[in-house]
Amino acid sequence: SALQTVQKAPVSSWQREGTATHPTAEGGSEGTATHPHCGCVVEALEMSTGKIPFLEAVNGSDVLIPCTYLSCIGIKNLYFKWEFNDNGTMLTVMIPIDNAEPMDVNIYRERVEYVGSSKGNNLSMVIWNVTFEDAGQYTCFGKNPKERGKNHSAIFTLYVVDEREVVDNTLKLIIVSGVGGCIALLMIFMLLKNFTIYVLDKIKEKNKECLVTSSGIDNTVNSLSGSRVTSKATPKKA
């Protein structure tokens, strides 16, 4: 079987590079192929555990361990397996061709269920009622015979905790309150400043009006006084 073929491969023939595993035996594929339509060199098979390849789960909960695959050249008898911490196979799947459901699904661990669908290139599994022993790295391996035996993989890390950590927002609230208080004080200061300027302008306008009025009264009084003095100084004719 495909599983037996992988198990018989010598350990020295596997070379890890990040999340991909490449066989180094002579005659092995380098994992690239020429696209039949565009003529460009592409990675023939790609495995992915998502943009966020880790999860923190509460002890006793059910967890989805995701994995998807993408092949530019198509698949034929795609062999796939999940491994836990590189020391044990959890399940194996064989998909004959594109968009076909698996012909053979073998599960080797309790509380594990295969929930993938080849129509969506989905190879995910669910672990029911996780325990602390389930924490670790889960690696999904894919092997497409069209690539002459090259292996690909992606890693998903699971953390198991007693309960989800409660985020302490005290510091955040203090900062937000402080910033809000500063903004409020600044607004009050600007309002008081504008009000004070308005009052001072009004006072200046009233003072100007008073000065103009008093100046007019003084001029009138002076004119009247001058007229009286002039009339008294005129001599009488004999």
- CATH class membership of the largest domain: Mainly Beta
| Total number of domains | 2
Weakly predicted, low-confidence segments: 1-31
Quote the distance from N terminus to C terminus: 159 Å
Q: How much helical structure, as a percent, in the residues? A: 25-40%
Largest sheet: 6 strands, mixed
Order of helices and strands: HEEEEEEEEEEEEEEEH
Reported by name, the CATH topology of the largest domain is Immunoglobulin-like
Number of strands: 15
Radius of gyration: 44 Å
Structural class of the secondary elements?
Answer: alpha+beta
Strand order of the largest sheet: 6-15-14-9-10-11
* Overall 3D form: rod-shaped
Helix segment tally? 2
- CATH H-level superfamily title of the largest domain: Immunoglobulins
CATH level-two architecture of the largest domain: Sandwich
Strand content: 25-35%
Overall pLDDT confidence: 76
In short:
The chain is rod-shaped, with a radius of gyration of 44 Å. The protein has a six-stranded mixed β-sheet, with no helix packed on it. It has a three-stranded antiparallel β-sheet with strand order 7-13-12, with no helix packed on it.
